[in-house]
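Ticket reopened. Same input as before:
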Amino acid sequence: MRHFSAPSLIWLLAILLPVAALVSLTVGTVDISLSDALNAMTGSSVNSQIHIILFDIRLPRILLAIAVGAVLASTGAVMQGLFRNPLADPSLIGVSSGASVGASLMIVTAGGVIQSGALLGLSLVAVGAFVGGFVATLLVYRLATSGIGTSVTTMLLAGIAIAALAGALNSLLSYFSDNDMLRQISLWQMGNLSGASWTKVIIMGSVALLLMGFFPRDSKALNALLLGESEARHLGIDVQRVKRRLIVLTALGVGVSVALAGLVGFVGLIMPHIVRLAIGPDHRWLVPAAALAGATLLVIADSLARIVVIPAELPTGILTALLGAPFFVALLLQQRKDV
Amino acid sequence: MTMLADNISLHLSGFDLLRNISLEVEAGKVTAIVGPNGAGKSSLLKVLTGEMAATKGEVYLNKRLLQHWPMLDRAQLLAVLPQHTLLNFPFTADEVVGLGRIPHNTGLAKDTEIIAEALELVDASYLQRRFYTQMSGGEKQRVQLARVLAQIWQPSHLGEQFLVLDEPTSAFDLSHQKLTLDIVRQLAQKGVGVVMVLHDLNLAARCADNLVVFDGGVIAAQGSPEAVLSESLIDKVFGVKSIIAQHPVTKRPLVIT
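Engineering reply: fixed in the latest deploy. New output:
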């Protein structure tokens, strides 16, 4: 039996997300009361220091968390459908490993100019990560595409090969970096939202909206693809075109989110899986519900990241895994009992 | 109107899988393809349904080249049931059959009605809310059959419809084998052209209008079951000694081995 009907889960998450976001505004090194946060959001005047903390630091950070969480979880759902594998995740197409090489390369080679050098208000590391992710995806896609179309199996293998290569390059770069660079590299790989700015919110937000606009058009195609590629073709789906479109959108979404927030693991793999356990594999519901769930998880994880070791902060990526993994295990146990 | 394979040859990695095959699948008729393993039956179905391109020759669907049909239009005319479907996501039977309605824009209410009727037809109403991943092999195959039936449930203004089945009865018990053949006959009566690969010669003889015997990538014989099935042919193609008798009730040929 399914535990939720799809619409009720979406309603639940649609209420939970703003509540989590509002609570998240109040937590951090400086405590802000809920009424101050509410007042500020509704436009009433508040203490100027609080105003700065809310609008320059916390709000962009929360919005970034929402956009990154939504993008990672929805692309995860899409990749799991495309690869017909409930354990696939967006990194399968090479985007994360490529991005991490790009970021490390920038940290190691341009260490001195990292803070000053910037493009569109983004650090060179972000640009390096995006370019690295994009190149790796292109490579994986090219390797898997022949005259008869793109083979999902080859793509999986190519993704593994590229990830191994990227891992080696990463180790090589780490080997040649000094202590400070090493720390930067590993911090970046843990995923962090603390560098949020309005520029980042606008970039990430537009990408998230773009994906949310495109994914629903292909949700029926994804459903058909779960039967197999030739079965989907017999149902009138232009499989090659759908595949290409979804891979490009995923590479864009994950590439940008990795560039802006580092490697926030777990969300893309487990959130779609959890949502599927709850409402089933129909992508018309699964993709939006996973997006909402991913956004909610990341907002909660990031709030905790700000408070568990006050006055310091933990990288967000650690918290997503710490929060999500036990929940996932609990769900698996529950499911085992049901069967 | 017909589905027509015109002088098809298929070479794949140095092997001749099909050689100069010409086959006409008529609307309103049941065509059954039999033959030993590796004779090219499934290869022909793949070429007929556009899954593989023939090395030589063309396939026509209602007088129009198969590859010239827009994909969505083609899906309204041609439904295909493969031998195996590797669906490992927990869709319910309802949802699986609903996938067959993707090429249509008939609306949720009509689709729900068709889904229920299709499941009822294949004796799978009780599976409606069950998970596909938890069904037995025969149940899965029935649900998939319902899915392709739902795909061509209503006549199309685009032309005659065709149903391609690759060993539809392989996982079925006796009663569901018979049920499948009854459904196939009903569809033919409604004007659908059915082509299917079968392994059981007697099942084929009982329901086929046109029986096609494959051997080594060529058609060894085709025609009505009475005309085609002979002791010498079965010996030649399958290497099995047999007796051809007549079914006491249906009067169809009966192969006894």
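The first strand of chain B starts at residue 2 and ends at 12. The domain at 2-256 of chain B is CATH 3.40.50.300 (Rossmann fold). Please confirm and we'll close it.
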